[in-house]
Amino acid sequence: MPLESSLYPAEIEIPSRLCLTEMHGSILVNGKIEGEGFAREDVFAACLKRNSNGTLVSWRLGTAPNVDVATVLSAVDAAAAAWNLGTGPWPTASMGERVAAVVRFRADIAKVRDKVIAFLMLEIGKNETDASTEFDRTLQYIDDTLEAARNLDRDNSRLQFSGGIIAQIRRSPLGVTLCMGPYNYPLNETFTTLIPAILMGNTAVVKMARFGRLFWEPLLPAFQKNFPAGVVNILNGDGKTTVTAAMRTGKIDVLAFIGSSKVGDIIKSAHPMPHRLRSILGLDAKNPAIVLPDADLKIAVQECVRGALSYNGQRCTAIKIIFVHASIAKEFTQMLVAGVNALKPGMPWHEGVAITPLPDPQKPLVLKRMLDEAISKGAKLENPELGGSIIGQIFFPAVLSNVSLDTELAREEQFGPIVPVVEYQDVDEFESYVVQSNYGQQAAIFGRNPQVIGGLIDKLANQICRINLNTQCQRGPDVYPFTGRKNSAEGTLSVGDALRAFSIRSMVAARHDDVGKSVVQGVLESDTSSFLCTDVLL
Ligand code: G3H
After folding, report:
1. Domain containing 217: what range?
2. 202-226 burial, b for 16+ CB within 10 Å, e for fewer?
3. pTM (predicted TM-score)
4. Is the CB of 475 under 6 A from ligand 1?
5. Nearest CA to ligand 1 atom 8
6. How many domains does the chain have?
């Protein structure tokens, strides 16, 4: 059977649990779920399918909202009204009330798990295991964030005494947040900013990602039911026009954006008063790995394959270039090719599948261009049988050796299944690559010699924000800081850091004398303030 036919399913082969009837996405603005009155755009599955003639055709999953500027501005106004200059019921609610709302919300979204996972699989081509992990990890993130919020509230419920001043310090919300997640983790990464933002008392406008929009539909009722009108608004529209228009209003206080640094800069610069904008950004990365001469090659290959090609390499944290010492380059590359060739291509619902269709129909051609340029500058395609070939929206992973540092592939993020390998003689070459790079998220070191590794760690620590030893680059566990330097990030995300990122410390201070003590005591005993209070959230 030709490869194309074995990979792409005829309609009858698609599991019935995924054969969703066409979905027409809605928006949530000011507490109302609206399904009409705005333009729409078609949403296609990443997976094509074969029609009865055997031809590969697009598969329309439904339509997503494509709202105009006026609708986005009405969502910004709704969020601004719910914020009400910090006096709205949500920003002034106690942490206990907000925690209770998020707990109810979490219980409601758990009920639509299967639908959300099905849409992630079909629309962004994520395999079933990874799509399920994305959902479950998001629930875990909510649980951990709730726990961190309770702890924060407990810690802040203690009075502090220093320099003759009694103080109570709490974290207060910042205002209206614009949340924009990426298409590779459209659920998880959006929620890792949205949940801490609202838990801390901010209000939000969520703009859906370029791909991964229909999964929002089963989630909208849970947002509508559990949060006051205007606290969370969710919609989709053309980014260039609607997002810049939203920023130009000056009503956005916090920008939470995961995407490219180029787009991040455009969005930020549209704000009329940049000093009033807090930005939390997760941006591009070009995480390198280095394989030292004494590395355990089995571990190095296994981690590099997972690190470079999980979800087809579409992770900001992916290993995007591998430096291998010349003495082991041949053996490493052979083992790498074997590991890559063992990855099973197929549809997201196929058992054990690793390589799946890319959600962006233009992406295979972009990758091909990078591949061709690298080959034209001396790189060798090490798996020519299938590497770099394109069938439908599947791009077969390509392993390239002898990649010149003077190529787009060596310098820029490919965000897809190409694995560039560079041979080095001296670790200085790797260090200089990292120092010169425009990116500063993570790196991975494979080796055993403590002297070499210790020296490398010290050189890298001022360049990047996570050094992985004999393990791939990754974001998790989510309690650890996720950040970057240079063009890779602004601000830090983690369960604990995110609560801080979406809030500011405010304090009440009184002289530690008879008058001060008596007023503080009076407020505490009369229970007249939810800020100046020592009640502990259980
Ligand atoms: O694309 C960036 C994601 O946050 C990656 O997360 O490393 O856990 O796959 P991950």
Report:
1. 65-282
2. bbbbbbbbebbbbbbbbbbebbeeb
3. 0.97
4. yes
5. 475
6. 2
